Amino acid sequence: MESQLLECLESLSSAGDDERARLRKVSRTVGYEELPKSWRALVRIAAAKTSPKRQDDSASGSKKSSRRAGRRVRRSTSDPREAIIADEEEGNPAFRLCRHILLQPEVMKDATDASDIRKRCDEGVHPAWERLAREAPIFAELSRFPVLEVSNAESSIEAWLEKANFDPIDHPSMYDWLSIDPPMKLSPKQRKSLLMLRREYSTKVDPRRVKRQIADFDTDTGVGSLFVGIMMASIGEDAERLFKTASDDPDLKEIATLYLTLNSFRHSKSAEEVVKWIEKEPESKLSYALTIEAWQAVSLLDLDLDLNALTGGGDLLDSHGSAWPAKLSFMIASKLIDEDRFDGAREVILGRPMGPIDVLTAVGRFSENDEDLVEIASESAKKIETSELIEILYDGSKSVRIRTIAAREAIARGLKAAHLEVLSDIATKGNEIELLSEILVGEANVRNPMRGLLVWHLLSARIGISKMDRMVDLRKKSIEALERIEDPCLSEVSVALLAVINGFSHDLNALHDRLGTTGIKALNQTRRALLEDGTGIVRENSIGQLITAADNSSLGDIESSLFDSLITSLRLNRARIELQMQDEDKKRSATETLVSIVNEGRLSLQLVISISEMIEEYHIALPVMEEWYREHAPDSSGSQIVRASISIGKGDHLNAGRCFLEAARRLEPQRFERTTQLRRMALIHFAHARAWKQAVDLIDRNAELMAAITRRFQLFLRVCSEYDKGRSDVATNLVLGYASDLDQEERTQEINGLRTYPDELGLPSDPFEGRVKAALKRLDRPGRRNEDRLERRLKEELQKGRDVLEISLIAQEQAEKKPLSGLRMFQSAINHGGFDEEGVRRLRRSQRSMFTTLESSIPIKDRRTFNITSLKPLVIVDTNLLIDAFKDELIKRGSPYGLGNLDWSLERAFQWALRRQKDAGSIKTYLPESVMREFSNRTRDVSTSKRLFHGEYQDQGLWSSVENAGIEEIRNYVIEVFSGVNLAFEQDNSIISGLNNFLESHSNIFAKIDESKRQRRDDEPSRSVINGEAIYPEEGDRQIIIDAASLASYSSSISPKLRDIGSVLVATRDSDFRMIRRSLEEQYGFVVVENADQITKSVNRS
Fold it and tell me: Most buried of 65, 251, 827, 839, CB within 10 angstroms?
């Protein structure tokens, strides 16, 4: 500071005696700006020429000056004396003496340290103090001390270099260093720049301002280069050239070399001295910075450091507040994984910087699936280049988990089409069923069909339900494309399980080896139960043995999932068969099974479809399934059907009807058959709920329903609706108009038959029965009055006496004129519910006796309402059921174990229900000539039989072993199984002649059926032509209609074999029958049955 003080005092001499001029002059000097506040106060006292006797005035700056024109100097109002006195920290003895001089004389008196200060000044003072004594008389005492000679040499280089041993980006240390003048001659401009730099580093540094200030310094010398280089480094600039220049100076070489190394770490990323510095113990701030930078540059070298050394580097970086370099994080994580310290490695991966490729590599080494690690790996996959992503996909050494993450990212980037095969492989190996479904769906040609089936059986329904149509299409394409039961990415056990579940013929040795003898034996028992000689019910202990065998084996992820699917399929089949038995205990057992399956939470799309079908078919109330739909598919048709079944269970028919109607609305418009079926169900439940208006409105809005319900049901709904509106006369007239085209006798008989219609179907009897009675009164005649008399007697007897003999007499009297009416009286009494078991048996015997007497005059179509135990349904079996049975038998015989198909589908359940009912003697079957002819034609040889499996798996091994003789043997076997009554009769000519008119009356229905058939088939469907429109049932189906209608109109008078036939049924899955089933029933008197449940109900009704 003394040099700067001298510079300021020398400038005063050329400014004259005016205080303002002197202050203005000195304020412009660099030295003045460099001085601290207390030293500047000395200059101000000197500028004022303060003397002891005018101390107070001068010090306060109150000295008067003449008023002169010109710029005024802005003077400080502060007392410079106070600044000097306040600086108690300054150690310079001459400055301290000045401070004591300025203190009050009484304070100075007897001061204990004044003599010590003067003694030090006696050793010599800087020339600045002698000059100060001359300029400021108050400090005249300073002139008596000897003046030291001051050399013009720069400041000490040693001190400057010692202070320079710091990290240049450490700005507080930089500020301390700048307080020392550099050991070089500085021009005023450079001193000014140095001053500005000191100020800059005292606060927030602006690199642009720093660059402007250091531009004034000379970098040709070593000191200048080092100074500027350190300044450049402090603002993050590359100063390699400057440090190299400085290192040429022997005095500067050591520190310049350190700075050069630090610069290379930070800018050129040189790794030459990394090993040296990571192994060196830091001794100074600069060496500490070098060590930190060496650890941060560790990624540049493939160093074989142990875990302790690596974690030591990490700790050092943490203590400095520096982030770990990505490579160091990876090296530490890898070492931790090597030592099975996965928790520590997990913390490093999740909490430290790491390159995206390294993250994927490290996470791939974890055996357990960790959601947090998968998430960070997925985020890392988004950051890598596409070329790197593709490299991971094809790198078989990478873990499947990491390749799966890469596969997801590849699909997100639109790379699926270009890398479909490897993406499919990865998803399959990783058991990533959802990902596999995304890859396979929409694929034009299924390359790996076993994977499509894998998706079908294992894809979670919560995912698949939103894309059900695409999943169904994938399954269909997969089966069509399947040529060999194998897949390179699936184990032999997985392939074998898929084969078993789908009923494919395949060698099960791999499954045998894994499950053992006990497990395979249990599996075969369950499969055998589904054959014709089996019970049809899979025993629980067999399932338990299977589960135990699987638990004792080491199944992989996919294998376990498929095995669970197999077990669930067996349980589902068991439940379906129990439901077919129409037994309440069995139904409860089946319901419990379904609830258990849903609660297990492993629902596949296939399971949801199957369970939903069973709920609809058997009206099972399954709240857990409703909850599932509400969560995962609230807007689906299935959710409404499940809700409808729950409402039915509660007796809430109105809500059930609304649910069925909403389910139909949610289906696609082209699903004509399905929507019609659901609307028909809605109608039935609206009728049970007495929602007459809603039912009639539904019929009026959907003309196709006219064919799906009988005229009687339509009449019932419209009559009740009109009466409900208060229009009783209109309702009565509707009843009268129902048979207006008949003569009086037939009309009365037809209307009288309507009286029991609601009771026969369990529908509300009021107000329909009352309107029928009102209509009959209008048709009043003597015979009618007699009938009313007998009906009143029957009613009275049922209410009071309940005498079986009296009821028999009443019925016999009625039967003398109206045989059917007499039999119906017995039926009314049986259904009344007021008789004990013995009474019911006596009534049935009497009814049976009367029927035996009158049987030849009662056509079969009029016997359907009589529950006479000896009467059995005659079932005409359509060709499609024979073909189902033929295919089932062919697969079974082609199976290595002779166990055939495991899947108990609706179609399979239908034909097996027919077999069992026939074998039990509950039904009689009949194969018309037209059916026999079509069936024989479609199974005449291997070639035609193979076409039956179009769209299904074609087992080449099976077809290579089958010959025409084998086909004939199976065909004959199926005919034998379903053949029953051998009838010889002539078709009714009136039915033949009127069939075309009947079919044409439903032309709108057949047009939609024809359109639907053409959409589903690749070839042209066979249709018959009426009035130029080729939309009607083919000839074979026409013949079945004629045969069924003829038989329904016959009695034993035509054939004795019809004596014990109570109804004629046509068992078929053909929509040509199903869509007009009620019209066929009403017009011709035979019933169309389309599933196992309807067969069972028909038998129970009989």
Answer: 827
Distance CA 12, CA 29 (A): 10
Predicted local confidence at residue 104, as pLDDT: 63
State the Cα–Cα distance between residues 1092 and 593, nearest whole angstrom. Answer: 20
Q: Which residue has better confidence, 106 or 368?
A: 368
The torsion of the CA quartet 234, 240, 241, 244, rounded to 10 degrees, works out to 110
Rounded Cα distance, 239 and 259, in Å: 9
Q: Which residues pair with 1088 in a beta bridge?
A: 1066
Cα–Cα distance for residue pair 644/649, rounded to 1 Å: 9
Question: Of all helices (H) and strands (E), which one includes residue 877?
Answer: strand 872-877
Q: Residue 859 in contact with residue 1051, Cβ under 8 Å? A: yes
SS3 746: helix
CB 891 within 8 A of CB 527: no
* pLDDT tens column, 980-994: 999 888 999 999 999
How big, in percent rounded to 5, are the helix, strand and coil portions of the chain? 65, 5, 30
Q: In the structure, what pLDDT confidence band is assigned to residue 959 with cuts at 50, 70 and 90?
A: confident
CB contact at 8 A, 605 and 434: no
Residue with tokens 């490897």: 422
- 36-76 per-position pLDDT tens digit: 888 988 888 888 888 886 555 544 444 444 344 344 444 44
In Å, how far from its chain's centre is CA 53?
97
The CA-CA-CA angle for residues 764, 766, 769, to 5°, reads 105
The predicted pLDDT at position 461 comes to: 92
Q: For residue 538, what pLDDT is reported?
A: 62
Cβ atoms of residues 638 and 664 within 8 Å: no
DSSP bridge pairs for 926: 876
Give the Cα-Cα-Cα angle 66, 67, 73 (nearest 5 degrees): 100
More confident residue, 1097 or 659: 659
Spatial distance between the Cα atoms of 51 and 136, rounded to a whole number of angstroms: 6
The CA distance from 257 to 248, in Å, is 10
* C-alpha R_g of the chain: 53
Q: Which long-range contacts (CB under 8 A, 24 or more apart) does 71-75 make?
A: 72/20, 73/20, 73/21, 73/23, 73/24, 75/20, 75/23
* Residues 868-885, mean pLDDT to the nearest whole number: 88
Taking only the tens place, the pLDDT of each residue in 1058-1093 is 888 889 999 998 888 988 888 898 889 899 998 888
Quick one: pLDDT band at residue 381, thresholds 50, 70, 90? very high
Nearest alpha carbon to residue 381 among 368, 396, 366, 398: 398
Compute the residue count for the chain. 1102
User: CA 376: distance to chain centroid?
Assistant: 19
**1094 vs 698 pLDDT, higher one:** 698
Residue type, 252: L
C-alpha pair distances (Å), 226 with each of 177, 619, 723, 755: 13, 93, 112, 118
| Whether the Cβ atoms of residue 881 and residue 911 lie closer than 8 Å to each other | yes
What HEC string does 85-109 produce?
HHCCCCCCHHHHHHHHHHCCHHHHC
Q: Give the chain's end-to-end CA distance (angstroms, integer).
A: 125
Separation of alpha carbons 756 and 789, rounded Å: 17
pLDDT per residue over 684-709, tens digit each? 999 999 999 999 999 999 887 887 78
For 579-608, what is each residue's pLDDT tens digit? 877 778 888 999 999 999 999 888 998 899
Helix (H), strand (E) counts: the chain: 64, 6
The helix (run of H) or strand (run of E) holding residue 824 is helix 819-832
Q: Is the dihedral of CA 1069, 1073, 1077, 1080 positive or negative?
A: negative
* Most distant pair of Cα atoms in the chain: their distance: 165
Three-state secondary structure of 1013-1072 = HHHHCCCCCCCEEECCEEEECCHHHHHHHHHHHHHHHCCCCCCHHHCCEEEEEEECCCHH
